[in-house]
Design a protein that fits this description.
One of its GO terms (cellular component) is cytosol. By secondary structure, this protein is α+β, with helices and mostly antiparallel strands. Helices cover about 40% and strands about 30% of the residues.
Amino acid sequence: MAIVEVTTVPLGTGSTSLSKYVAKCHEVLKEEKNIKFQLTPMGTIIEGDLDTILKVVRKIHEVPFENGALRVSTTIKIDDRRDKELTMEGKVKSVMAKL
């Protein structure tokens, strides 16, 4: 299981507001059955099978184009641990246990 942080930024929209694009990207995420996701102030965290997540990220990247953006910049960070189960909740709990 992988955890991926994705930030998709539409450019050339004529506005500095991004929330309508973020909302449309989350509509795509809600359609996917085999992933978990969490909106953060600076991006979205997705948990699941890496191949599935990468396909979803590709769909998300297209959303701003479909909604009038002329250019899109997408940043992806991947945490893919294979020696034990990796979850968003587990990562947070690990840090909190040390505080």
